[in-house]
Design a protein that fits this description.
This protein has 19 helices and six strands. The protein binds arginine. Arginine binds next to helix 6.
Amino acid sequence: TANAMWGGRFAAGPDAIMEAINASIGFDKRLAKQDIEGSRAHAAMLAATGILSDSDVAAIREGLLTVLSEIEGGGFQFSTALEDIHMNVEARLKQVIGEPAGRLHTARSRNDQVATDFRLWVRDQADAAIQGLEALMRALLRQAEQGADWVMPGFTHLQTAQPVTWGHHMMAYVEMLARDRSRFADARARMNESPLGAAALAGTSFPIDRHMTAAALGFDRPMANSLDAVSDRDFALEFLAAASICAMHLSRFAEELVIWSSAQFRFVRLSDRFSTGSSIMPQKKNPDAAELIRAKIGRILGANVALLTVMKGLPLTYSKDMQEDKEQVFDAADTLMLALAAMEGMVRDMTANREALEQAAGSGFSTATDLADWLVRVLGLPFREAHHVTGTLVAMAEQAGVDLPELSLAQMQSVHPGITQDIFAVLGVHNSVASRTSYGGTAPAQVRAQIARWKEMLP
Ligand code: ARG
C-alpha cells in the first residue's frame, strides 16, 4: 500500500530494500525531543498568525507532549515504514488527536524541519562539549596548583630538553583546551540561526512569522536565505572540526599518560578506577582509558571526513544524501563526551610522582642550556661559542658516564679556563626553572600567575 503521508501519486508501496535504505528512524529517533520542540513552536506560530485556529493548535501542542512522553517512557512503537522521526511523530499525533494533526505540516517541510531539529541537537552538544572541557580544565588546574614548582624534564623529540615544572606542563593543556572551548562557542554562535519556515526550499506563501519561531527555539534570528537554510550542514561540520581538534589534543595527552605511567618513567600513577589488569600477567596495571582516548580521534575525524565527503558536490538544495549527516555526528558527539569524561576522571584521580619527576628532570644533561647561558651572561662569550664549549663538556660527561654537575671544576676549566665555582648553581634543576621568568615561561612564579588567571576565568 502507498505511503500515508505522501502516497497520493503512488499506486504501490516501496520494495523492502527501498524501505531499508530509505529509513532513518533507526537513528534519527534521537531527534525526538528537538522535533517535538520545533513542532510545538511552529504550531504556536500558526495560531498567532491566524493560519490555524487556536483550538486546533491547542490540541496539536497538547498532543505533541503526549507523544513526547510516550517516546521518553519507552512505550512508543517506531515504524520503519514511516521512514523517519518526523513522520513517526506526526502519525502518532494523528492517532492521539485526530484530524487537527494533519494541519501541523502547514507552511513547513521535512527539509526545514530536519535542519531545525539537527541544529538544536548539535547546539546542545556544543554546550555539552564546553561543559566537559571546563570540568577537565578544572581537574588540570588542581594538578597544576599542587605541583606548580615540581620539576620534570621538558622534552623535544621525546629527548630531554630543559627542566620544566609539572604545573607548567598541566597548564599547557589548559591553554589548548581553552581554545577548543572557544571553537565550540564560536561554532555555536554561528549555528544559532533558525532554518524553520524555509519550508521545502523557497519559503512559503502563508503569512508565517519566522522571528517568532526562531525566538521560541532560542535561536538568535531566522536564517536569511531559505535555499541555504535547508541545504547546508556546515554547522555540523564545524562541530565535527572542533571535535576533531579537541580529540587530537586529548589524544596527545593520553599518549603522555601512557608513557608516564610506564615502569620506565613512573611520572604518574593512575588510579585503579581508571586502569585495568591483565588476565595472565598479575603485575599489570594498564592505562586502557588513556589508550582508548588516544584512539578515539579515529572515529571523530572519520565522521568529519565522512560528512564533508557527503556534502561536497551536492547541488542546492536538499538531497537525500544529507540524511547521512546524523549517524556521523551522533557517534562523534557521543565519543567526544565520553573521552572528555574519561580524561577528566583520570586527571582528577592520578598522582604525580614528585621524586621520579625531579630525578628525571636532572638527567640527560637537561641544564646544558643554563650552562651555555651562564657563559654568555658571566663570561661574555658569544652564544655560538658558549654552545660549543657546553657541547664539549656534555661529551666529556657522557664519556665519563656522569651528569654535568658531577664534573669537577678542574675538568670544566680544561675546556674553558674562565669557568668558576659559580657554575654549579646554575646546573641545578630548581635554579634552572626558577630562572625562566619570561612571560609564559616555566618559572613557578609565572605558572602560579597563569593558574590564578584561569581560576578567575573559569566558571
Ligand atoms: N529523514 C530525512 C533526513 O534526515 C528528513 C528530510 C526528508 N526530506 C525529504 N525531502 N525527503 O534528511
